[in-house]
Structures are given as structure tokens and as C-alpha cells.
Structures
1.
Amino acid sequence: MSNNRYEHISDQELLQKFYSDRDNQWLGIALQRYTLLLLGVCMKYLKNEEEAKDAVQQIFLKAITELGKYKVDYLKSWLYTVARNHCLMKLRDKNIFIPVEDDTPLASPETDRSELANKEITLTLLETSLEELNPEQKTCVTLFYLQKKSYQEIVNHTGYSLLQVKSHIQNGKRNLKILLEKKMNTNG
Amino acid sequence: MSQLSNILNHDEEPGSEELLRYLQGKATDEERFAIEKQMVDSSFVNEAMEGLQHFRDPEEVKNYVAQLNRQLQKHTDKKVTRRNKRKLKEQNWLTIAILAILLLCVTGYLLIHFLRVKH
């Protein structure tokens, strides 16, 4: 079954099809979309190519079983949680404990896709909010979003580490949205 | 100022091919920007990209993915075939049961008929 034929079908639709006819092929199509990302996450935690591959296989089997038992609405975030938990369990078996990072998403995609994105007034407010960020966040956000520099270019330009650059962009974006929402509420 | 909308806009999620090109340093500027934007917004993509960079040969990653997808497909196909077989078995039993009932009815009717004729 060529999966290109199903590119236009969303994960939610594929899950719906599975829940209505219980045909595992729908799950196969949906899961294959995340093979690379799952392999990456498993590799990040397990640091071993063979173990990462085995882990992805086990996650697939688990997903097929679990998805048959209860309804999942957002496959991508559900799979990510399953993968992380699976890897952390594997590491725990080896007596390796990894502190869980704060992985609170910046915002749900739905919020991000807000219709406000292109409105002139929003962009004006965004411009003033950008000035209120701390200098590190302002520099990184400007270089990244406005000048479209790569992470590496920003590292070279600012002298910050890659981790710092990522963190300044993430926190900068989060703060910008908070400032923007405050301003929007004040403006009514 | 239009560049500011990059902060709020959500692009389409990059596919596996783009991600692999990024890992190999062969992505276009546009692809690179879209991927790094995704990395800011999604911990899943961010952690995955960190992990994928640990593979010795990014080209090998492609093979691993193809291999995993083949195994997954085998598994999902097998389950369906098995379920179909089970369905077929259930259907066979249903047919046998219906035929048996019909046969009993016909035999019963004939028996009663012949007994009446005899008397």
C-alpha cells in the first residue's frame, strides 16, 4: 500500500477510519509518519542504534495494542509520550535516571494558528512587545524569526551555546505571546 | 514588519525527506528555517533531531526507517489477514448452523407427513 495516496488524510481521519472498521492498516499508515521522529527520540535517550531500532518496534506494537483499546485524539503527542516513557523505563532498568525536562509545549498549534497572525494591529503590538524582551531573547528572536538565521549562524553571531540559543528563542517566543495577549486584552 | 508574522505563523510540518536533508546539511534555507521553527514549537521534533544527529551515518537512518516501516506494515497486514480468517471461520459456522436447522425442519416435516399418510 503506497502511503503517498494517503498524504492528504490527517492523523485524526486515519484514526477515525481505524475506529470505525478496526483495520490495522490505517494505523500502519498513521504510525509510519512518525518512524523517523520516533527513531530520533529513542536514539536521544538510548544512545545506541540497535536499541533505538528495537525500541521503535516495541513502541509500534504497543501503539497498535493500546490504540485498539481506547480512543486517542492527537496521535503525534500521544506517540511522543509513549516513546519517552518507553525509553525512560528502559534506562531505569539499567539504573540510569534522567531528569525529566520541562517539555510544556509553547502553545497548542490551534492557538498558534490564530487568525490574528497577519493582522496589522497584531504585528504592531508584536513589534512593541519585542522591545520589551530581555536583550538575549530579543537578539535571538530577531535573528531567528526576522532575519531567518539558522541556529548555527546565531551561535556564531552571538557566542551563545546552541542550547542557550534554542532556549532564548523558545522563552522569547513564549514571553512575546504573553505580552501580546496582555496588550490585546488591554486594547479590548 | 511582515517578517514579524513568522513568529505567529505555523508552516506545514516538514516531512521525513526534508528532515533527512537537514541532518545531512543539504536542506535549502527555506527547509532549514521551517525545520528549526518546528524544533522551537515541538519538543517531539526537537528531541528527535537531537537524537538523529547521534547516528554515525545519516544515510543509514533512511535504511533503518525503511526497515522499520516494512516490519510495521507486515504486522498490520498480518493482523488484518488473521482477523479476516477468523471472520471467515465465524461465517462458516453460521452457514453450517443454518443448513443444519433447515435440514432438521425438512426431515421433521417429511417424517410427520409420512406418518400421517401411513395412518
2.
Amino acid sequence: MSLTLARPKQTGSGRDRRIRLEQGRNLTGWLFLIPAALLIGWMSFWPMFQAFVLSLQTGRGTRLNWAQPLWYNYQRLFSDDIFKLTLENTLIYLVVQVPIMLILALILANLLNDRNLRFKGLWRTAIFLPCAVSLVSYSLVFRTMFATDGLINDMLLGLHLVDSPVNWLGETATARAVIIIGLLWRWTGYNMVFYLAALQNLDYSTIEAAKIDGAGSFRTFWHVTVPQLKPMILLTAIMSTNGTIQLFDESWNLTQGGPAYTSMSMSHYLFELSFQKNPNFGYAAALSYAILIIVALLAAIQMKVGDKRD
Amino acid sequence: MRRLPGYAFLTIAAIVSVFPLYYMVVSATNTSADVLNSRMLPGNNLWQNWADLTGAQNVASAMYYSMVNAVATTVLSLIVCSIAGYGFEVYHSRGKDRVMSVLLLAMMIPFAATMIPLFQMFAQFGLVNSTVAVILPAIATPFLVLLFRQSARSFPHEIIDAARMDGLSELAIFWRIFLPTMKSTYAAAAVITFMTAWNNFLWPKVILVSNTYQTMPMLLSNLRAGYVTNYGSLMLGVLIASVPTMVLFLVLQRSFAEGITGAIK
């Protein structure tokens, strides 16, 4: 009797000890991740919630009241021509720039991944180098290059491609084009690095097999390499979309939103509403929620498309 | 011969990438008029540009504040995010997975949607114009937590078990074993965080109301806003602001590539 009791007791205490150790480790894990979790909650989720509350209020400065009706600020957005214009501008940047950039980045990464390529480090460094320059800095360099009496016009005139200097930053179409060119210059190398990393983790034998089967390099790239890069393409597409929707520095420094708001981004307009002229935090918060909703919608669409098996 | 189009394409891409930077460097040594005359050779106006630049703006102070902000953000961010990523992976549990998926949602929150309440909050605390207000929102980023969690995945669990047998505490295992072996991940994270913090423009512009505390991007933006732009000294300012991030990237380039590759396995 005493023997049979003693045995389970011993193993029981051993298990208890193990369970306590496990619990202790589980707790340690929580302690490790709590600072980051709390900070993200405090600096992202909480203000996001507050912005929503704010978007239902109106008033100037700090004297805010509930809007009548509550969704008044959102209603106002729909009749705000400048909002519509900045939305249009931002979507143009997105639709034109992101696909061109990702395709260019894919092509470059694929070229750089060639095992027999020479000067690999040189190419990679040169193409990534624009990412080391700040957005404000490159905006100012591009502003100087595209000035009416600047370098680009001098080159075009010298090559007799144009008869008179183009007013790049003074016309709607060209101002938008300059922003798109700037974005392409700044971010293509960044995305290339992500594709390059993904390519290096890829099973090289599948590509060899396709080549042995007689597929040309384009078909190998399109049918073998690209499908395997899908998760990375999805990630970069979502990151670039978020970045473009939140575009601010270029709009502020390169074109100053001009001419007449036709190159201004949504974030630039948000800044103007929040901190310039007559600050209106309630209305600005509604605009910030419009940006949030667009980002969420686009991410959802991309994930849906990216998930589809073909 | 077959590779010729590839080399041609890479050459064009490399020239297009580097050319604006070359233009920036030579323009920093030329007069404003020469910059607009598209002089593509180094000139001898560097000292004059420097005098004009420092006469118009306090460059040393802006470099100092930019450096303080970027270094503090990078150090704190690496500690907070790496230990969290490690915690999520090594002490993996269902509850933690749920927390992680919630945190990842934060990646989708545009900064625009949090900017105004953040400004109000820091104003309430009396922290407008403070370094704390600049760096606090930038410390914990879901992207870095994810990066560290992914690379902790390739860290062998046998090593952790062996260290436990040797009586090392959980924190010591992280600090003395995980951290030194994950150098390339830390390098990649440091490059990304430092560049983002150094280049950040919108949030410092919002929270640093007084020009006394302005950072380099803010200073450059103010230079542009003058009535007559002195392009030579503007390009010199842009060049100075770009040196720290360029140097950091060139020094850590190899580990940066390794870190990214290791994380997305």
C-alpha cells in the first residue's frame, strides 16, 4: 500500500516540476514580447481608435463637439473637390508606379541571380544605392534636375528632343510624371533586394530542369521562377501600395502639391488640414480614416488575388 | 554574346541609379548658376556653398538631433523587437500566435491614421519638441518583430536546450547565445531602422514645432522654401544629410543581404 502510493507521488512531483518549468518558460516568453506588444498597442491601435472618435467630431482647435449627424465629416469628404483630386493623384501614382517598379525589380533580380554574371556586387550596390538617400534629399535633387532651366531640359534641348524648355513642375501631367519617375528611381532597388533574397532561397534545380526541357529564358522566368516568388511579390506589392498611399515627402518637397493641387498626395492634404491654415482635427481624422480604409481594402484585394492558385 | 542584352540592361539601370547621386555630389561644389547651367564637372565653390549653407541654417545642430533620434530609435528598436520576435518563436504557444496576428494587423495601419491623436497625446504630456516624442512611436514595428521571429526559426533549439542544461537563465540564453549568432539579422534590422529614422520627415515635422530641434530632412526642406534657392548649397546640404546612411549601408551591405535572405527562408 505504502509502496504503491509512494511511486505515483514521486512521478507526480517530477511532472509538477516539469509543468512548473514549462509554465515558467511560457511566462518568460510573454515577458519577452510584452514591451513590443504594449508599444504597438499604445502607439498604433490606441491612436487609431482615437482617430475614429475624432472623426465623428467637429470644431476648431481643441474645442470639439459631436458632429450632427455623427458621420458629417465623412459626408463632407464626398463633396470635397480637393480630397477627390488628391485621391485621384494618389491612385494614379499607385496604378502607374507600383506595377512598373515591381516588374523592373523582378527583371533586375533575375539578371543578378545568374550564376555566371560578372561584377555582381557592383551592379547590386549601384542599383540599391538610391535607397540610402532620404526621401526629402532625393526630392530636392529631382527638383533641381527637373527645374525649367535645369539639367533635364538642357539635355533634351541639346539632343533636339524638345524645342523649348518643358515646365516640368508647372504642368499637371509632367509634375505627376516627375513624382512617378522619382518613386521608381528611389524604390526599384529596394524591392530588387527582396526578390534577390527570395531567389537565393529558391530551388535552383527547378530552373535547371526547365532549361533542360528546352524552355527559353523568358518562359523559364515566367512559368518557373515567378510562381515560386509569389509570396514575396505579394509582400512587396502590399508594402509598396501602403507606401504609395501614404506618400508625403515627395509631394511636399518635389512639387509642393502643385500646380493647383494636381500632384498633391492624400497625406499632404491631411497635413494641410491638420496643421496649416485653420486646423480642423475632426475633418482631418475623417480623411485619415479614408486613407486607412483604402489601404485595408487594397491589402485585402491583393491577398485575395495572391492566394488564388492557378 | 547571349548575355549582352542582360549586361546592357544592367548597365543602363546602374547608370540611371547612380547618375542623380553624381549630379548631387558635383553640384555641391558648383555655384548655383553653374548647377542650372548643368555643369557636370567638380567646381571650386564648395567652401562658399558651405558658408552659405551654415549661414542660412544651423547644420551642426540638425545633424546632432538627427543622429540622436536615429541612434536611439535603432538601439531601442533592435532590443525591443528582437526579444519579442525571439519570444514569439522560442516560447511558441497558441495565445502568442494570436497576439502576433493582431500585431501584424498594425502593419496595415497607415501613419496618417494615427498622426493626429499621437500629436494630441504628446502635447498633453508636454512632450512637444522632445526626443522622446520623436522616437517612441518608431521603436516597436511589427515588421521588425516579424523579421526576428522568422530568423529565430532557423536558430537550432538543441543549442537552447544545451544552454538550459548548463544552467543559463532564459535571458542569458537570448543575450549571450542568440544575439551574437544572429549578427546578420541585426545588421539588416539596423540598416532598415536607422535609415527609416534618419530619413523620417512627416512625424518630426509634426511634433518638432520649434525649428531649434529640427532634423536634417526638415532643414533641407526649409532651405528649399526660401525665396531664391541657392542650388549649390542646397545640394551640399543634401549630400551631407546622405553621408551617414550611405556609409552605414556600404559598411553593412553584406550582412544586410544575408540578414534579409536568412529571414525569408
